[in-house]
Every structure is written in structure tokens, then in C-alpha cells.
Amino acid sequence: MKDQKAILTKCLKNDWPAFVISGTDVCAVEAMEAYLEIAKQKGCNQAFLSDMQLVIDEMRHFQEEEPEHIKIPD
Predict the structure, then answer these.
(1) How many CB atoms are closer than 10 A to CB 12?
(2) pLDDT tens for residues 1-14?
């Protein structure tokens, strides 16, 4: 996916709202999968959808490999 840090930095620089989901968030994968479905419905291009799927896969892998870090957000 495009450089996530650069996207967040651009939002912060321009005082634009941004939403961050941490890999430690128990809701992260499901939230990202829901976003992916909405992105498909809205007509996002295949490159974006593919990048998003890669991020979801990375998040899922992280959560499977390091379950001790996964928690309910507070």
C-alpha cells in the first residue's frame, strides 16, 4: 500500500481528519475487511483494492503470530 506514514503525515500537516487502526486492535482485521467491501462498492480502482488486501493480510498475519499483543482498544 502507499506509504502509510506519508499519508498520515500529509493529513496531520494539512489538519485533515485521519483514522488509524493499530495491528494490536482486536477489531482491526474485521474493520479493514468492512472498509474493503465499501471501497469495492464505491468503485475504487483495482490497485487500491489489491493494496488494501495486502495490508489486511499483513494485519491478520501479525495478529496470528503475536496474539499476546492483541487487545480490546481502550
Answers:
(1) 10
(2) 568 889 899 999 99
Helix (H, G, I), strand (E, B) or coil at 71: strand
Cβ neighbours of 32 (radius 10 Å): 19
Query: pLDDT tens, 48-69?
Result: 999 999 999 999 999 999 999 9
Q: Cα-Cα-Cα-Cα dihedral of 59, 56, 60, 35, to 10°? A: 100
CA–CA gap between residue 48 and residue 63 (Å, rounded): 23
Site of grid cell 485521519: 18
CA distance 42 to 48: 12
